[in-house]
Description:
globular; mainly beta
Amino acid sequence: MEASSEIELHPGAEYHLILGGTGSTGYVWECGIIGPPDVILVRETLQEAPPDTGRLQNFSVNHTYIIEALGPGKAEARFVFRRPWEKDTSPLQVNSIRVNVLS
Length: 103
């Protein structure tokens, strides 16, 4: 499944994107930036796991990506949800965000 969107930001502004996980299935989000390196910066924060109750848990961690506008231009942040060892398999999900940073 592929989803895409487009946003406009001013330099210094941030956009927060929350992507869900799938617990212990082995899928991870991989992020890449397409375009000039001085337009956007993407960083990730993780939700903390709940306290250990002594039982096996299947806990899905939400991944929050922060897209920060650095300078005027256009770039794309592409988020791919896949198992890293399955190189010849299509990703389970792809999210693309086209970013237009205004001057």
